[in-house]
Amino acid sequence: METDWGCLARARRGDEGAWQILVVRHAPRLTRMIYLITGSAAAAQDLVQDTFVEVFRKGPRHQKGSFSAYLSTVAYHKALKEKKRMSSFDSLDQVDIHDRNGTPLENILSKERVAALTRVINSLDRHHRDILIMRFYGEHSYENISRILELPIGTVKSRLFYAVKTCREKLHQKGLIR
Amino acid sequence: MNHINDDALLKRVLQLLEKDDLEEQDRHLSGCSLCTTRLAEISDETNILGSIEPDIQVPEIPLPRSDRSLSFRLMKIAALLIIGFVAGYAVSRSSGISLVTIVPYQVSHATVQPPLSQFTVCE
């Protein structure tokens, strides 16, 4: 399988197929990640598009490390900027959730459970929440998160541990887990 | 037998354990069904944190147009000028308007007056 860097180089020479490979590989993960950071679906879609266009236009200064981390770094900074700009932050409490393949009652219960879960994640401070989102929704390794956030890997690990532990305790208190 | 505490099991789930600690847990878990069960529970509870599926569309992102070279841009401008000229010419021909031809015309200025000596003085 061709590397992402190789695909980007071909796309920059006009190869539409290579471009589509990159978009299919990375856009869903980036969209989810930006959405959970900003709380806005419209912003997530716009920023994912902006991220890809910026990476295409500027091109990488080097091809060291993971393309995925490079892309996420660009996306993450755009997401933070957008979140700062949005005066009325659309809380993650209002996340639209996919209906599961179940009965209407099961769907309602599922939606309530997910709404509670989003409130719990949203209650973390930014430093812990962003790491949790990158790990669970951005599917990044600790090394990548460390590179994206420019933090020592030990800090990333300890913050993730704290974030998950705190969320588990809150989920326990709400009776969402035993 | 000392069981593994929840924090240590959570570290295992999050892949935060150092190699030595991981091996020590492996040895314990291989003979302890209680800790194995607890590990599965913590793993399930942790996975819940990543289970939100937002109802958002992934945008279609077309291949952006790459920056062209200067020569390409100049060629594009030249092509547009040629197309514009040809189209203008074709329109003027089809509308039946005859072309106006401007012929240079020399205008003669005032004739030179004869010298005064040629005039006869009348008494």
Would you give an account of this structure?
The complex is a heterodimer of chains A (178) and B (123). Chain A has 178 residues and is an all-alpha fold. Chain A folds into two domains: 1-89, RNA polymerase sigma factor, region 2, helix turn helix motif (Rna Polymerase Sigma Factor, Chain: A, Orthogonal Bundle), CATH 1.10.1740; 99-178, Arc Repressor Mutant, subunit A (Orthogonal Bundle), CATH 1.10.10. Chain A is 72% helix and 0% strand. Chain A contains eight helices and no strands. Chain A has helices spanning 4-12, 16-38, 41-58, 67-85, 104-122, 126-136, 142-149, 153-173. In chain A, helix 2 packs across helix 4 (67-85). Chain B is mostly helical. Helices cover 49% and strands 0% of the residues of chain B. Chain B has helices at 6-13, 19-29, 33-48, 70-94. The longest helix of chain B has 25 residues, at 70-94. Chain B starts with 5 loop residues before the first helix and ends in a 29-residue tail after the last helix. The interface between A and B is large, with 46 and 27 residues.
Record the SSE blueprint.
The complex is a heterodimer of chains A (178) and B (123).
Chain A: H1 4-12, H2 16-38, H3 41-58, H4 67-85, H5 104-122, H6 126-136, H7 142-149, H8 153-173
Chain B: H1 6-13, H2 19-29, H3 33-48, H4 70-94
Helix pairs in contact in B: 1-3
Count the helices of chain B. How many?
Answer: 4
How many structural domains of chain A? 2
Q: What class would the helix/strand composition of chain A place it in?
A: mainly alpha
**How would you classify the helix and strand content of chain B by structural class?**
mainly alpha
Task: Figure out the total of helices of chain A.
Answer: 8
- What is the subunit arrangement here? heterodimer
What is the second-level CATH architecture of the largest domain in chain A? Orthogonal Bundle
